[in-house]
Structure formats: C-alpha cells, structure tokens
Write a structure and sequence with these properties.
single chain, alpha+beta, five-stranded mixed β-sheet, 21% helix, 21% strand
Length: 464
Amino acid sequence: MIGFNDILQNIGDFARAQWTPGESTSLARQHEGARGERLTPSFDGTGNAYTDDDIRGYRTPRSPQRLSAREVKRRYERDLMEATRLIKAAFDGNSYARLMMRDAMRGGFREALSISDFPNLFGDVIDRAVLANYIETPYTWNLIAKEAEVSDFREVKRFRIDGGTGLLGATDSSGNIIPIEQGGPYGEDKLVDGLFSYRVQKYGKRMPFFWETFINDDLNAIKDTPARFGQGARRSEEYFVTKLFANNTTFFSAGNKNIVVPIGSYSATNPALSITALAQAMVILANQVDTTGQPITIESMTLVIPQSLKVTAQNILNADYFWANDQGGTISGSSSAQRLNVRNWAKNIVDLAVNYYLRIVDTSHGDTGWYLFANPNNGRPALEFGKLRGHKMPELFMKLPNSIGIGEGALGPGNAAAGMSAGNLMAPMEGDFDADAIHYKVRHVFGGTQLDPIMAVYSNGSGA
C-alpha cells in the first residue's frame, strides 16, 4: 500500500492517469514524463510501493517488471480505491481539514492577493516595467484648520467665552458712551459661553498577499504597499477637512454674514473669482465683529480654490501691478476717467491653497466656488482638526506569522538573514501558517469640527 503523503503528492495523477485498453501486453505500459523521459508505472520487487518520482508524480521503478495491460489496470484501480479510503479516513471528523481541502479545491484563500490577481504584472514577457505612481496632490488643510491633540476617544469639547470686552458703558442716541454719575451704580456685564464638540475616530484598511506573489515580484511593484497606505492616509485627512466646509450652507449663511454679497460700493452676489471679488470678500471678512459688537482684526488669510481656478488665482496673486478702475480709480462708459496703476496689495496678505477635493466633495459648485479663511493660528480658528495623542501620524503594521519553522534537528531554526534566532516565529515575509499570506495594515485616528464661522467667507462663483 502507498502512504497518505504519497496519495496527496500523486492525487492529481489519480484523476488524470492515462491507460488505454488494448495497448501492447508484451511491454510494460509507457508514459511520457513531464520532462520528456520515458517512465514505466510499475512496482518494485515487493509489489507494494512505488520508488523515485518525476515532476508529475509518476514513479520510476528500480527493477522494472513486464506487466500485462490488464495487470497494470488492476493495480491502478486497487491503489485508487485505497487512496480514496485513506483520504476519507483522514478527513472524517476533522471539519477544519475538510474546509482547508475545500478551499484548496476552489483555488485557495481568496482573501489574499495571489499571482492570478496580477495577470499583467506577472505575465510571461521579456521587457517589463512598472509605471511610476501618479504625483500626489498637495494637502492644504493645515492652512485653514487648527491642528489639535486629543487624549482619547471620548467626546472633545471646545468652549468659547465671550463678554466683558465691550465698551465701558452704554451709548446715547448720538453714540457717545454714557459716563457714570457721581454716586451712581455701575452697569452690569456678563459672560456668554458657547460649546463645540467632536470625537476622533479610527480609520484604516488592510491588504493581504500570498507569499508566492512576493516571490514573483521581481519588479518590486507591490513592495511599496506601506508607502501607498501612507499616501491614502494623507488623502483621507484632506478629504475629511474639505467635507467640513465645502458648500456648507449651515456654516456659510446670511445669518453668519460670511457669504460674498453686496457691501459698500460692491454690488456682486457670489461673484466669480477676480481681484475685485477678492477685495469684496476681504471687506466682508474685515467687517466681522465679536459678540459684543466690537471689531476684530484679521491680518493674514488663505484663498482656497479648486484646480479649475488655479490660473486665475495665480494671475491675481503673482501680478506686480494692476489697473484699478474702481476702489480709487474711476471709469466712465467704455473709457477710463482715471485709472490707477496699483502695486498688488494681495500678494503680501493672501496665501494660495489649491484644494483638489473641492470638485469631488462639492458637486454643485466644486469648479467655481472659492473661500477665504483667516489664519487658523492667529486667534480663533474657523475649523479644528484633531488627532489622537501618541498616534498623530498614520501607523503601519505587518501581521506577525503564527508559525514556527522546523528543521536542522531543532524546533524553529529561525531566519538568520532576518536576525531571528532558533525557537522564534518565522520572519513576517514568510507569511502565516494557514495560507502563507502576508498582511499589511494601516491605522489612523482623527476627527474635527467647525468652530467660528466669522473667520471664513465663501462665494459659490455663480454670480447669483
């Protein structure tokens, strides 16, 4: 009889064995080996076991015997029945083994990426090269949102305290501050608080590969998976902050006075981006007051635009001079009455941030809308983006294999190249025990909220 290991090794040939009745009975049955050699499937002197092996599992005999075709067929059928019995006995009562065999018959563990998942990458061609990754778009959220550290996953609360900063007394009908008469009472003031809250949350994903996939990766096309995860984490940050403000009609509203509308000598509503529209937005931002009605100052700001307005914005901010037909200059009909050649004041006040996610997040005005944010590090910010303390950066992981190597007369000889001594687990690139799968994982923890709406201005660019 043949052993169970021989059955597993030759199981494919039991199902494919080639024997045709009527072949010559004077010579032993001949098979063509995988490498072209002539092999005789017969038994050794005892008639109980095969000897030697070729690449397909056929056995090369030490002492070939001349068997009739009928005897070859009889012995093959006997071994096939015995193999079936042994396999059934091995898997009876072992549900895990049956599942493993089922998955193997179906093509292996499909939760990991195998060679077959990359037909173009691992195709049998002579001249191959992997295209470089796309150039990553820059992130801009740090120019408009204040970065904060939070201690845990519980709700984060941000309080605003206003009051006590107003004038030292009421005003009369002429706007004069009313003084306190001798012996008169002092007027009362009070503090007013506001509450903002959010929670940081965990985000991430994993990507498994089969060990064979890494072995075949001679172009190093998949070994940069951790770097790809890092790129995905940075993009997630930019996308998250963009969702906080893009075309948000609650944050940008007439009540908050942070929409570009007619003011003073400006008559446009939601104007398209221009030097005049930018000046109009700056006036609206500068006219904001605190809860006591007192003016505030905003010295530096950031213009946030989609990529479709990049040329327009750069023309505005990079110009050395421009002709002013209004705001100091005058124009009459089609001819200028007195045009001013003005040094570009905007280039020293306004920074530019091209947000490539605006057109993805805002499907209504993502190509025309533009925003003006006060510097988040000067005073009260419009937005806050929080990260978990001790875990501010994206964290990359590789699954530790749950297997120990056996060999060289010792348990777990280790991997000298990986610096692992005997008795340790296998190196991570050896894969896990069940399927030789190698797992990468990325984890990132962040959250955020809108804070003070008077620190930002928005125009959807529609002109209406």
